[in-house]
Amino acid sequence: MTMLGQEILPGRGVQLNLEVAHLHTRTPIQVPVLVERAKEDGPTVLVMAGLHGDELNGIEIVRRFLRKKLNKPSKGTIICLPIFNIFGFLNLQRELPDGRDLNRSFPGSNSGSLAAQFAFHFMKEIAPHCDYIIDFHTGAAQRNNFPQIRCVFSDQESVELAKVFNPPFILHSGLIAKTLRESIVKRKKKILLFEGGKSNNIEENVVEEGLNGLKRVIAHLGMRNYKIDISKDRQPIFIGENKWMRAPSSGMFQCFVANGTAVQKGEVLALVTDPYGKYEKKIKASQTGYVICINEAAVVYKGDAIIHLAKEKPQQ
After folding, report:
1. CA separation, residue 104 to residues 21, 49, 100, 115, 182 (Å)
2. CA distances from 4 to 102, 111, 314 (A)
3. Which one of 48, 130, 167, 273 has the fewest beta carbons within 10 angstroms of its own beta carbon?
4. Which residue among 159, 189, 220 closes a domain?
5. Assigned domain for 233 exists
6. Taking the complete model, does pTM exceed 0.90, yes or no?
7. Domain co-membership, 175 together with 277
8. What distance in Å separates the CA atoms of residue 177 and residue 183, rounded to the nearest whole number?
9. Are residues 164 and 250 both part of a single domain?
10. Are residues 166 and 33 both part of a single domain?
11. Residue 167's domain spans which residues?
12. Statement to judge: residues 303 and 259 lie in one domain
């Protein structure tokens, strides 16, 4: 295997650097890529996070995976990319310095924007080596996603891998133009997208869900055996139809329901108030289902997404 100009022999591990851009001082920005190749051939799995620079839960999942030396396979190759959007991470911001969302810039261009160049070099230098990709994300801004895997339900292999990961929820999510997931699927490779928690936070329950799910997938692919303590009694809930409830007016927002719980249509979930004691608006569930994301902002504007409700979809 040769990646980023360096040969990686069987049984060896290396740290490579994806060099795409420079600071204003001309100092190169290096994106570390850690590769562990077993002596025995097998699948190649890319474990990545930090596509958005402020999504720290995913970065912590990959960091812990590395720290515990769980990335050393007995078969195949594991590639770890803990922080892809290194510019965003340095500034604790979602976007790159050009203001573009890296996850809306694929497959990229060598002569395009900074985001397009990042995407292009990833697709050229790293993606061709990968059979499977596990991409870790969190909710944007103050939106807190309950741990979930997103995939296309018509892709049976991806659904089976999602079941192996065993998150609380498996959500049908169609491909979005110019995302990493769309570009990878077009190249006939498999990708699971994990969502958990909110930006600029490290949440232990989210990290543990992601780390254990990752270990399950690696073990399922026959690349390494792990001791997994999480009970197998839990079955993931499959989610089909889902809808955001939006703030009916601007004001202070208080949510009464816990993330991840089941709710009934008409149940009071939250309250929007004014600061002067003259206005209160109860927010009632628009449908029976599960809460899979909550906006944790204390102040909202009319039309802001506040609670994400989802209906269970029976398995076919």
Report:
1. 18, 16, 8, 9, 10
2. 21, 19, 44
3. 273
4. 220
5. no
6. yes
7. no
8. 8
9. no
10. yes
11. 2-220
12. yes
Query: For residues 93, 97, 98 and 104, what is the CA-based torsion angle, rounded to 10 degrees?
Result: -40
Nearest-CA neighbor of 183 among 95, 96, 122?
122
Would you say residue 305 lies in a domain?
yes
Model pLDDT, residue 130:
98
Burial class (CB in 10 A: 0-12, 13-18, 19+), 219: middle
On whether residue 40 sits in a domain, the answer given is yes
Distance CA 206, CA 276 (A): 37
Position 166 scores a pLDDT of 96
Is the domain of 111 the same as that of 214?
A: yes
Residue position matching structure tokens 């703030």: 247
Query: What pLDDT is attached to residue 24?
Result: 82
Q: Which pLDDT score is estimated for 127?
A: 97
Pairing of strands 28-37, 77-81: antiparallel
The two three-digit tokens of residue 290, written as one number: 């599960």
Structure tokens at 258: 């816990």
CATH of the domain at 116: 3.40.630.10
The encoded tokens of residue 53 equal 């620079």
Closest CA to 245 of 274, 280, 269: 269
Say what the pLDDT of residue 315 is. Answer: 74
Tell me the C-alpha distance between 253 and 297, whole Å.
7
Mean pLDDT by 10 residues, the chain (316 residues): 94 94 83 97 98 98 97 98 95 92 96 93 96 97 96 95 96 95 96 98 97 96 81 82 95 98 97 97 96 98 97 81
Distance from the Cα of residue 79 to its chain's centroid: 16
- Pairwise CA distance, residues 53 & 157, whole Å: 30
